[in-house]
Design goal:
By secondary structure, the protein is α/β, with parallel strands linked by helices. It is built from 12 helices and 15 strands. Helix 2 packs antiparallel against helix 9, helix 3 packs parallel to helix 9 and helix 10 packs parallel to helix 12. One of its GO terms (molecular function) is identical protein binding.
Length: 372
């Protein structure tokens, strides 16, 4: 179907953070499949885990249990440092749909989300998304959803009441151009939700699994949400999402209330285990912080006439431009052998593999310097 248009290039293989196109041209991948390929392409740990698992047990459905999803659920809860439950699915949209359904089981229906947010394109997730251009062709959308300005504590305070089932927030708005809220925003949201007995749901689909230098970005602020949604980097390139719930929220789904045929697929979960263990074993959380800061300081240090500043955390960065020319800059960088994303007319988004090297970061900075 024509919902994607025609892509600019066709890719045939990848290794590490380098992709090869059908014409043989190589590109350094600073988008990572939209923050998905946490370990880059063809990482030996992922290849080995997937190969071994598919040779042993490929799919069992949700009528049976296998070892990889149990091990991965235990590991995710250990990383969160809390007791809870995990529902596996196939994507971020599905994870957010599960969170939406969990919120209905509180007995309330009102939901608060934010302008500019992106939570997926299925009908429920689209109702939570705060981007009219994506929503308008598909209205009416389900649910009683109020959107407020992102980062505005007073607006959140005014919108959340004792009739609110959940508040859903991204710790950093990725699709909206890597928008970072003011310090303390998540803490304030937690307090507002607690006071009104509403669920705090944090969409960590883009920020989770080490992307910002923390396993989950909300840990940087010490906040404890009721529900966390994950996908993208969790599967390291395979379709894998998760909805994690803690405290009373973890017990709201009961047998028969939700399901997914492919959720908890052993092969995808084996990949997820390989991703997390490799991030831990290779100290990639610290690496992400170092290289992310290297890129930020390097780009801002260019004093480039097109660059206003760099925002974000770790390896989820937005280069904010002085003019709405991100598409042109991205095209020039592509010609120079670098793949980036013009997320907004005035923002270039970077979400490279967590293994991106210091030398590759310097090469991107130099390429940007050459665009004047």
């Amino acid at each position: 179907m024509n919902n994607y248009g025609t892509p600019a290039i066709g890719l045939v293989k990848g290794r590490g953070a380098v992709l090869t196109a059908e014409d043989g041209k190589e590109y350094v991948d600073f988008l990572g499949g939209i923050a998905v390929n946490a370990l880059g392409h063809a990482h030996p740990a992922v290849v080995a885990a997937v190969t071994q698992q598919i040779q042993q047990l490929g799919h069992v459905s949700n009528l049976f249990i296998s070892e990889p999803p149990v091990a991965l659920a235990d590991l995710l809860l250990a990383l969160a440092g809390r007791t809870g439950r995990v529902l596996f699915c196939n994507s971020g949209a599905e994870a957010n749909e599960a969170a939406f359904k969990i919120s209905r089981l509180t007995g309330r229906t009102h939901v608060v989300a934010t302008h500019g947010a992106f939570h997926g394109r299925t009908m429920g997730a689209l109702a939570l998304t705060g981007q009219p251009a994506k929503q308008d062709p598909f209205r009416p959308l389900p649910g009683d959803v109020t959107h407020v300005d992102y980062g505005d504590v007073a607006a959140l305070e005014a919108a959340v009441t004792t009739a609110t089932a959940m508040v859903i927030l991204e710790p950093i708005q990725g699709e909206n151009g890597v928008v970072v809220p003011p310090a303390g925003y998540l803490t304030a949201a937690r307090e507002i939700c607690t006071r009104n007995n509403a669920l705090l749901v944090l969409d960590e689909v883009q920020t989770g699994i080490g992307r910002t230098g923390h396993w989950f970005h909300h840990q940087s602020e010490g906040v404890e949400p009721d529900v966390v949604t994950l996908a993208k980097g969790l599967g390291g390139g395979l379709p894998l999402g998760a909805c994690m719930a803690f405290g009373p929220a973890a017990d709201l789904l009961t047998p028969g209330s939700h399901g997914t045929t492919f959720g908890g697929n052993p092969v995808s979960c084996a990949a997820g285990l390989a991703v997390i263990r490799t991030i831990a074993n290779e100290g990639l959380l610290d690496h992400v912080k170092r290289v992310g800061e290297q890129i930020r300081l390097g780009v801002e240090g260019l004093n480039h006439p097109l660059v206003k500043y760099v925002r974000g955390a770790g390896l989820l960065l937005g280069i904010v431009l002085n003019e709405p020319v991100s598409a042109e800059v991205a095209a020039r960088l592509r010609d120079a052998g670098f793949l980036v994303n013009p997320a907004k007319p005035d923002v270039i988004r970077l979400a490279p593999p967590l293994i991106i090297s210091s030398d590759q970061a310097d090469a991107l900075i130099a390429a940007l310097d050459g665009i004047r």
